[in-house]
Every structure is written in C-alpha cells, then in structure tokens.
Amino acid sequence: MISSLPLSGKTALVTGATSGIGLVTARELARQGARVILVGRDADKAARAVASIQLAAGPEVPVHMKCYDLSLLRNVRALAEELQQELSQLDILVNNAGIMPGRFVLTEEGHELSWATNHLAPYALTNLLLPLLDAAGQARVVTVSSVAHWVGEIEPDRAVRNSPDKYSWLTAYADSKLANILFTNELAHRLDLTGITANCLHPGMVDTGLIRPGTSPVMKALWWTAKPLMISPERGAQTTLYLATSPEVARVSGRYFSGSRLARTSERAQSRAEASRLWRISAEETGIE
Hints:
The chain is an alpha/beta fold. The chain has helices at 20-31, 43-57, 73-86, 113-128, 130-135, 158-161, 169-190, 217-226, 233-236, 238-245, 272-286, and strands spanning 11-15, 35-40, 63-67, 92-95, 139-144, 196-202, 256-258, 261-262. Helices cover 44% and strands 13% of the residues. A hairpin with a 2-residue loop joins strand 7 and strand 8 (261-262). The mean pLDDT is 91. This is SDR family oxidoreductase.
C-alpha cells in the first residue's frame, strides 16, 4: 500500500526530469510514494516521462509535469508562482537540470546559456520556493554539481562572462558547476537555524543527453572517447536519491558528495568569501535576494 512507503505524503520537485538521472530520480522518488512534480522543456518528452514513471510506480502515485525552459528567469518565476498557488509545502527540491554548453549562446535575458541554466536557475528557483520548503518543517535541497568544478572559477564581471571572445565551453561548464557548490554552501549557512538542508553532489560520469546540437566537435570527440567508461543513469542517480531520502543525512547540510559519500572539493569551492561574493552576484543578476 502507498501509505506504507517511506515518502508517502511528501512532495518532491525534480528539474530536468524528462531524461537521464533526472528521470531516474523522479521515478524512484515516486516508487517510494512521493508526489512528484517533473520540470522539463519539452511537453512530449515530459508526457512520456510521466507515463513511464506511473508505469513503474503505479497509477495511484501522483505524478505531475510542468513545462518550462529554466534558462529564462521569467520562466523560473512563473514556475515558482504556479507552485506557490498549488502546493502547501515542498519536502524535496532536486536542482538537476543542466546543460553541457556547446557554441556560445546568450539568452534573451542577456545571460550566457550555461550560466543561466546551470546556476542562475537553481539559485532563483530555490530562493523563490523557500517558503514552501520552510512549510514542510524538514526539507531538503539537492543540487547536482560535477567534479569539473575543480577547474572552475567565478568571473565577477558579467561582461566578460557574456563575451564570445572570452568564451570556452569547458570553462563555462566548470564555472557553473563551481557555482553550484558555492551556492549550496552559502544557502546552508543562511538556512542554519531552519529545518531545511542543502547539499550537492557529483553524480559520476553518466551517459546522459548532455550532448546536443551545437555541441563543439572537440567535446563530442571527448564524449565518445569516454563513453565506454560512463555509468548508467540508474547508477548516476544514486547519490541524488541518497541525499534526497536517506535518514543518514537528515541533519547534514552544506556538503559535497560523490558515490553517496562525502567528497573533497577544490579550495576555491570551500571559500566563504567566494560563496558570499557569488551570492551577491546572483542576487544582482536575478533580482532575487
């Protein structure tokens, strides 16, 4: 019976949930009894994801979809407003959506695409949903980062980040993944006296759909070279699920995990000054404190 499942009565939101580790995460949360809300850009893929999750978890488990392109902050705000109207609380927020950038793209709102999708979106969505997370009493924010953060650094000058002449797909991705960790650290610090925890993770080298039209030939070559060493989305989702559900980390916050264990980060990722500076940059660029 659903009432006997560990997440019965809980609500979970998973971004980037129409494929890869996001889909596996959403499916497994639903199988544990959670009401799951999937966020994806493509309505057809989202509908197929909902159908596959209900097939695995049972038709009685509520699964909902929200179609938004989170690279645009106006869509993040619209999603948050919709959720605030529909939900009384949110128990689990999984910031999973992300891209591996290819050619340089500037969004309609004037942000480099990977920075907007991988960092500004989770920063904005999490902050906008804090009232719902707080209403849950004990809630968890899980953000998917990457080991690539080791070569990342935060460029404070938006003009430099938005310059095609300064752009590199590798540094853009690494910088956004470093931002995920610094954001998590600062969020945990700010939520220290609440019932909300915030942690992040490296899922492993996962065979997912990060390669897309526009991806550079060099990156495609590297991807296909590494493909035999990659793990499945099912394995890649395990650390996310651990942080979202395990009682072992119920009171752990502001940490970085890999393989469901605490992991080392770069010195830059541990910097309180860097985390505070990133928060100021993010607040300025999103208009959200």
